[in-house]
């Protein structure tokens, strides 16, 4: 399942390299003490979608953008840039091939108590396993 790690690394690299997200650290894990703005990866869910002709895995994953304040309007350009970066990523997946990468939905939320707004982007990738040994 090394392809899953490489896929996440490609998404992270695409987000880190996006000029519109300069100054937004991309993290996978704890965010205690991290001040906004920042981007978090995950959670993700993998489902076996294999059939007779091919071994397929559906990967659903989230990218969340966090910013200070109460206005979600200011977050939307960053969300658009993040979505474009993810969709333009070109992951090299050992033992697997990316069949499709699509956005599922996006939403914004306010946490007035914490003084944060967040933008959630959900994606779905369909990956074909072509070499069981490397996958």
Can you walk through the features of this model?
This protein has 135 residues and is an alpha+beta fold. Helices cover 21% and strands 42% of the residues. It has two helices and five strands. Strands 1-2-3-5-4 form a five-stranded mixed β-sheet, covered by helices on one side. A hairpin with a 4-residue loop joins strand 4 and strand 5. Helix 1 (2-16) crosses helix 2. The longest helix is centred in the N-terminal third of the chain and has 15 residues, at 2-16. The radius of gyration is 16 Å and the shape is elongated. The model has no long low-confidence stretch (mean pLDDT 91).
Spatial gap, N to C terminus: 4 Å
Average residue-wise pLDDT: 91
What structural class should be given to the helix and strand makeup? alpha+beta
Strand order of the largest sheet: 1-2-3-5-4
Report on the biggest sheet. Answer: 5 strands, mixed
Count of DSSP helices?
A: 2
Instruction: Find the count of extended strands (DSSP E, 2+ residues).
Output: 5
Percentage of helical residues?
Answer: 10-25%
Unreliable stretches covering 5 or more consecutive residues: none
Strand content of the residues, in percent? 35-45%
Secondary-structure element sequence? HEEEHEE
Give the C-alpha Rg. Answer: 16 Å
Overall, the morphology is elongated
């Amino acid at each position: 399942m090394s392809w899953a790690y490489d896929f996440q690394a490609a998404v992270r690299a695409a987000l880190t390299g996006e000029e519109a997200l300069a100054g937004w650290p991309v993290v996978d894990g704890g965010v205690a003490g991290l001040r906004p703005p920042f981007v978090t990866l995950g959670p993700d869910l993998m489902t076996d979608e294999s059939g007779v002709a091919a071994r397929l895995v559906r990967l659903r994953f989230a990218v969340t953008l966090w910013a200070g304040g109460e206005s979600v309007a200011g977050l939307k350009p960053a969300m658009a840039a993040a979505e474009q970066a993810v969709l333009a990523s070109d992951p090299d997946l050992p033992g697997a091939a990316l069949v499709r990468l699509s956005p599922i939905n996006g939403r914004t939320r306010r946490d007035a108590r914490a003084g944060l707004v967040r933008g959630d982007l959900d994606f779905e990738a369909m990956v074909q396993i072509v070499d069981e040994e490397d996958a």
